[in-house]
Structure formats: C-alpha cells, structure tokens
Structure prediction request, 232 residues.
Amino acid sequence: MKNGKWICLIIIGLILMTAANSFSETNFERLLSESIINFYDLNEYDIEIELRSNHFNTESLDFDSLTIKPMSQSKPRGLLSFKVALFNEGQIIKEGQTRVKVAYFEEVLIAADRIGRHKIINSENCISKRMETTSLTSNPLTSENSLAELWAKRSIKKGQILSSGSVEKIPTILTGQGVSILYKSSILEISAKGKAMESGYVGDKIRIKNDQSKRILTGTIVDGETVKIAGR
Prediction:
C-alpha cells in the first residue's frame, strides 16, 4: 500500500511539473506573439505566429513580461529571428534569441477548378476563401469586382490563389481577329480589311496582314477594331 501511495505521489508530481512547464512555455509564446503584434502594429486576425526555436529554457524561469529586438527592421514575414529579454517585476532575468514564423492570411479568390490558359476569369470559376499568402510574390485578387476583363496568363490549378502574376487583362485585339487597317497621312486616309497576327493593347504596335495585298504591316492599336499605319 505504501509503495502504491508513493507511486501516486510521484505521478501527481510529474503531472504538476509537466503542467507548469507547459504553462510557462505557452505563456512565453503568448507574450512573444503579443510583443511582435504590438511592435509592428499588426492585425491579429491577419497573421499567425509560430515559435520555431528558443535558445534559452523558459520552463525553468519565473518571468512576467518580455521585450523583443528584431534582427531586421523590415515588415515581419516568414522565418525571422528576434532577440528577447525576459523580466520579472521589472528586473531583467534572462536574454536570448528566438526564431519564429510569421504567416499572413487573407480572404482571396482561388480557382474553383482548373482554369486553362487564356480562359476568362469570372465568378463561376473562382471562389473566395481565407488562405495563407505569406510566400506570394504578386498581389492576390480579393474581390469579384476586380475580375472585369481578365483571363489566365497560364494554366491555373484548382485551389490556386488568383494573383496579378497568374492573370492579366484581356488584350484589346487578339491574334487572328479581323481588324480595320487605317492608313492616315496629312493628305490621305485609307482603310482596308486585315487580320491581326499578334495580340495587343491600345497603344501597342502589332503585325497585321492586309487581306487584299497579303502584305504584313506593322501598326498601332487604336481600339478593339482598328490598327493605324503611320503615314509619311
């Protein structure tokens, strides 16, 4: 019986020690996250902060606050290191270095299914979802209002975030489209039918083919139907 009581006491002691260590570590992560959010004036809803490594043992320290010193002054994103000082009743008790991951999340538009290259983007092939955007190198699309006259630059996978890097404005004139070729000089203005050999936007120079002469010319896009050939 006595042995049984000792075993119970040992188990209870281990549980209490584990709980205390867990609380200390959780408290450290909470204080660290709050300090990073306040230091950079971040929106708590938009980010998640994950402790990756800690160069000092917080489990054996009695602390009530901490301060951080970033290794870089740029906006925190991805994996970062911070110098941390722990305090108890205003007195510094320990300094060390931590490494954290700061992840960003946004309500963005993603492909509801695979979208092929040059397929028009609309409300039928994309949906809104909260996604991590930490590693995006281009601006994500966040509203269906931004979809006007856009198509896919390249094939987009199902679930992929739509961004300025994966979509583009549909060209004013498309390859193979019939156009009106306008030849205009100070004394003469002639129009002829032709076909666009390239896609482009207003102001772009593209090659067009005259339907009658079969000549390949270069002109400037005026609007969705007209290409102007500069006269001498």
